[in-house]
Amino acid sequence: MPNTPQQQRRRDQVEAVLRLGAPFLDLLLLAGDRASRIVAPQGDDYYALRAGERLELDAIQAGPGSPRTRQPEA
Fold first, then answer.
1. 59 exposed, middle or buried (CB, 10 Å; 0-12, 13-18, 19+)?
2. Given this model, what pLDDT does residue 21 score?
3. CB atoms within 10 A of CB 62
4. Exposed, middle or buried by CB within 10 Å (0-12, 13-18, 19+), for 55?
5. Whole-number Å distance between alpha carbons of 12 and 19
6. How far apart are the first and last CA of the chain?
7. Helix, strand, coil in percent for the chain, rounding step 5
8. Phi and psi dihedrals of 68, rounded to 5?
9. In the chain, where the domains are located
10. What is the C-alpha separation between 52 and 57, in angstroms, rounded?
């Protein structure tokens, strides 16, 4: 069902606010990430995802050094 003109205007306004606020929110997330690394640099239960990375739950649940997470020897 198509939007009414009033709904379309409201949608455009919300999207404009989000576009304007996106850089601020990105900086807020970056600052929070950096602060968390300073406060708890050895957080073993923290798995940050970066752009372009995939989350593999099997490797996380297995833990470091388990057969699932060991790299093949060359």
1. middle
2. 96
3. 14
4. exposed
5. 10
6. 58
7. 55, 0, 45
8. -70, -30
9. 5-62
10. 16
Which region, left, alpha or beta, applies to residue 65 given φ > 0 means left and ψ of -120 to 50 means alpha?
A: left
- Can you give the length of the chain in residues? 74
Cβ atoms of residues 69 and 62 within 8 Å:
yes
Note the pTM of the prediction, 2 decimals. 0.45
Question: What pLDDT band is residue 7 in, cutting at 50, 70 and 90?
Answer: very high
Span 10-66, pLDDT tens digits: 999 999 999 999 999 999 999 998 998 888 766 566 666 677 667 666 655 555 555
**How many helices and strands, by DSSP H and E, does the chain display?**
2, 0
Write the single-letter amino acid at 26.
D
